[in-house]
Amino acid sequence: MNVVYFIFQQTMFFAIPLLIVALGGMFSERSGVVNIALEGIMTMGAFTSILFLNLSGNGMQGQGQLLLAIVIAMVTGSLFSLFHAYAAINMKADQTISGTALNMFAPAFAIFVARIVQGVQQIQFANTFRIDAVPVLGSIPVIGDLFFKNTYITTYIGIAILITATVVLYKTKFGLRLRACGEHPHAADAAGINVYHMQYAGVVISGALAGLGGLVFVVPTSTNFNATVSGYGFLALAVLIFGQWKPVKIMWASLFFGLTKAIAASYSGIPFLSSLGIPSYLFKMIPYLATLIVLIFTSRHSMAPRASGVPYDKGER
Amino acid sequence: MKHKKHIDYTAAASSIFAIIIGLLVGLLVLLLSNYRQALPGFFTILTGALTRGPKGIGQVFYYATPIILTGLSVGFAFKTGLFNIGASGQFIVGAFGAVFVGILFKGFGSAHWIVAVIASILFGAIWGSIPGILKAYFNVNEVIASIMLNYIGMYAVNWTVKGYKPLFNNLRNESKNVATTAEIPKMGMDYLFPGSSVNGGFLIAILVVIIIYIVLHKTTFGYELKAVGYNRNASKYAGINEKKSIILSMTIAGAVSGLAGGLLYLAGTGKHIEIVDRLAAEGFSGISVALLGVCHPIGILFAGIFIAYLTAGGFYLQLYEFSTEIIDIIIAVIIYFSAFALMVRSLLAKFKKQKENKAVKKAAIGEGGNKA
Fold it and tell me: Is B124 within a domain?
């Protein structure tokens, strides 16, 4: 049973950042703007917030410090995403181009500034954020072990974001308008919705969540930040498509990917799996291979937001 | 992309506009970080590659070779409506094909390098065809399939190199040297650029640029590929086998990326497949090169050389207290503004058209039957 708890906790470390970033990407794409810059925005958010953790490490620690870092990551992400929003919405630029530019800019900027600020590009931080067991809740049998032990506050934030995102997208006026802009912006415009505002909102939400996702990815899995989020932004893009641009499906997709990734990362510590004699490279490949195979069976009726990626031109007919 | 009637000089002009802004931002960043060394540093970026004479220029062409080809791969797929983010995986799988043949198939004598290069093309083509097949028959988004295949390819190559004794150099944790017969001949480049690493691979890259240009712009086949990219359903209705077109586009894109890997790892410059869990950067540079070259083969050729030129300048920048990442910052800003330039251009075209329309209306003295 301990193995199950262990894998579950590991799964969360991998799945939660994917979930948060993919939900961010969902808001952007549902408003009609493809955000391929998730990787770069994650890097940027992780960079400023980890730099904050590093610089404030002497005077602060614990959950308060982490919460402040979360705010910084989200603000950085939204500000950085404004570049993409301006290019995609105001300048009607090719969204792949500006996204690629942001992806290229972020790690270069992080290394350049880190070298200036502290001489080396790796930013160290002290991880004082792990919660061994949540009081009261952690002592519930089974559920306590699964959800409330050896965890991070970011896990609950991720779950809260999932619930909020679902409600916002399907139960609010804002969500309805956002979805309309991604499906048929001209109709939305005719109905009196300001398409540009909605698209800005979509991109900035995606920026805030991607920035947060960068921090959430780095904190449980490392003790330093080396100007990379290891392709997690691109994987989140994959999870978004895999999850059919729908919040709950995105959750399943990120859990699926997180589980395979957790097994790949920790199989050697699990007696049952390590006794099978499967080469480590196969384990490393399984998350990607499994996703590809599942996609083959599920993509036939793939439904992307119809206007996603097409710059909205008011005068166009 | 509705204003692409013909290639006009404004395309080049807009790229130059973006380059100037990118360089200015670079200068600004240098000034902000260390104003005393900013100007000499900036000057080094601009001219560093030239200060070493023919050797320096040769190095630029050497760096440019793989990214021209990965850029061509991405740009070609773009032209046919596909986003090939998988150049990285195709690159390393192609490199593996070249290294495999280069180490093991020693019986070919002086044709050895040709066989190895062909192997890289074939391996890349096979890897590229997978997302094409998945898209054509199973409607799998080629972006996500390519991302997955990047990782699968990288792990598969590392696994095979490490697991197969004749390929693996245990001491250095990388692939063994390829046979000297498998190294690409210099083809006279050593006379033009003595002392540099450039070789015949650069000439092969230029040849491939020309071939892709002819295929895309002068053949029915290329026209069909582009038509499917514009509108899959309309092309199908017009009698084009759209499934075949998608698969062939991705296969060709994969072949070109694979060749990029082959040419780099057969260059005889001490490049080996290192066993690290990292995606090949050349594939992602290809996206930048393709975008800066506005996805036109000739533009991509120049964009590749330009980015290699800046990168070479960046190496000499380390003499000053700047890190080479400033080059990536500059390139990122250039790409960002090249996206703007497209807009500026189409705005100009629209403005011109409106003016003409007004003139026509005035001439006709029609009633104001304007529909917004």
Answer: yes
- Interval B44-55 mean pLDDT: 84
pLDDT for res B5? 45
Q: What is the mean pLDDT of residues A199-228?
A: 94
CA distance A212 to A44: 10
| Whether residue B2 has pLDDT greater than 50 | no
ipTM score assigned to the predicted complex:
0.90
Q: Locate A314 and state its tokens.
A: 């008011």
Residues of B in contact with A97 (CB under 8 A): 291, 335-336, 338-339, 342
Q: Which residues of B touch A285 (CB under 8 A)?
A: 151-152, 155-156, 159
pLDDT band, residue B366 (cuts 50/70/90) = low
Tell whether the model's pLDDT for residue B8 goes beyond 60: no
Provide DSSP, A84-122. Answer: HHIIIIIS---HHHHHHHHHHHHHHHHHHHHHHHHSSS-
Residue B15 lies in a domain: no
Q: With 50 as the cut, is the pLDDT of residue B273 above it?
A: yes
Give A 210-239 residues with CB within 8 A of chain B. 231, 234-235, 237-238
A116 min Cα distance to partner chain B (Å): 7
Instruction: Name residue B363's amino acid.
Output: A
Residue that wins the pLDDT comparison between A193 and A135: A193
Ranges assigned E (strand) in chain A: 123-124, 131-133, 149-151, 224-225
Residue B175 belongs to some domain of the structure: yes
pLDDT at B160 over 90: yes
pLDDT of residue B205: 97
> Least CB-CB distance to B323: which of A97, A112, A237?
A112
Question: B interface mutation test: which of A234, A239, A240 has the most B CBs within 10 A?
Answer: A234
Residue B285 CA to its chain's centroid (Å): 7
- Residue B169, classed as helix, strand or coil, is strand
CA distance A285 to chain B (A): 6
Q: Residue A58 belongs to a domain with what CATH number?
A: 1.10.3470
Interface contact B225, partner A, CB < 8 A:
no
Structural domain span for residue B219: 55-313
pLDDT: is A208 or B360 the higher one? A208
Looking at the DSSP bridge assignments, the partners of residue B174 are: B169, B274
Indicate the pTM of the whole model: 0.88
**A306 falls within a domain:** no
Q: Is some CB atom of chain A closer than 8 A to the CB atom of B181?
A: no
Q: How many domains is chain A built from?
A: 1
pLDDT range class, residue A283, cuts 50, 70, 90: confident
Q: How many domains does chain B have?
A: 1
Range of the domain at A174: 2-125+138-298
CATH code assigned at B220: 1.10.3470
Q: Which two tokens stand for residue A194?
A: 């300001």
Query: Do B86 and B232 touch, CB atoms closer than 8 A?
Result: no
Nearest CA in chain B to A288: B148
Q: Is residue A280 part of a domain?
A: yes
3-state secondary structure (DSSP) of residue A123: strand
The predicted structure's pLDDT at residue A298: 80
Q: Whose CA is closest to B158, among A311, A284, A240? A: A284
pLDDT of residue B364: 66
A146-160, B191-205, B226-240, B245-259, range with greatest mean pLDDT: B245-259
Residue B361 has pLDDT above 80, yes or no: no
Residue A293 lies in a domain: yes
Residue A27 lies in a domain: yes
Q: Which amino acid is at A174?
A: F
Distance from the Cα of residue A56 to its chain's centroid: 25
- Residue pointed to by tokens 């600020």: A117
Name chain A contacts of B143, Cβ cutoff 8 Å: 237-238, 241
With 0-12 CB in 10 A as exposed, 13-18 as middle and 19+ as buried, what is B181?
middle
